[in-house]
């Protein structure tokens, strides 16, 4: 931790009053970057500061630093202190008074709303208030990467996030690959969203993307230095080191799979398929390798357990280049991909020896097939 340049003398006071709803909004956003890593104390703190009359809340997960500022100006002297984030967040979110006043008094932060509450300021070993480290100088960010859309961030969270790897066998797969397309894969599922965020390929971590999803403006500006990125609006600023290992992301293999040969395509009512899958989960077990059997017939797709203890037909809405085809797929993986969609129909392409493909607008999803389950 870095020692603060601001030292609070015993008895010195500061009074800042802000609308409760405004402070709740700021605190709610800043909480997104609190990771509470017991090995890194700073990740459990929230910095509260005023500089040049601007109130800023700052949190970190030890990688990203998230600054949330108020558009209002406050006639108080500059200060910076840190408190335990969870306590401050929960107190502010439970406050119902119209306004909240913050006082710094006798090395504590007093919060006056419905009542008056005292939070201990976090000090270093010398008894000086802890200050978050200055991670960057804005002048270092000389490369303008343009603007990304908040709506695009929310789209890739909805569609791509379920395909992120959760194990670290190949660390790059735990992040979003942002090149000509946004691609995620856990080696069993793939999601490719046909949108280009940056002029050069970058990896974005899930926590960073989640933070970006709560930014206040549709347009999020992006700039880069040699080793880091910044994302900013009028009221938020995110510092994020560039994620390493992009060269290990198997983008060529994944692109080859997405663009591979799936000779036949059909459309099915999406909710009907989900309902069938939900019923069949009662008859598909780990002993069956969680295999769901799909049989493409002239009339529609028959979904069944590998032991045929549950069988149900979903008629086609449309079919192109029909061919008889049977495959086994993990029922949970298939359901998770279909569930991300929101349309009435499921467009399903088949005929590959290794996967099924689903397409909606500019989204392509892949689910790997599994070996035939033994019965």
For the structure shown, list the relevant keywords.
38% strand; DNA Polymerase III, Chain A, domain 2; disordered N terminus; 3 domains; 18% helix; single chain
Structure in words:
With 375 residues, this protein is of the alpha+beta class. It folds into three domains: 2-131, DNA Polymerase III, subunit A, domain 2 (DNA Polymerase III, Chain A, domain 2, Roll), CATH 3.10.150; 138-257, DNA Polymerase III, subunit A, domain 2 (DNA Polymerase III, Chain A, domain 2), CATH 3.10.150.10; 260-368, Roll (DNA Polymerase III, Chain A, domain 2), CATH 3.10.150. 18% of the residues lie in helices and 38% in strands. It is built from seven helices and 27 strands. It has a nine-stranded antiparallel sheet, with helices on both faces. Strand 12 (176-178) and strand 13 form a beta hairpin. It starts with a strand and ends in a 7-residue tail after the last strand. Residues 1-12 have low confidence and may be disordered.
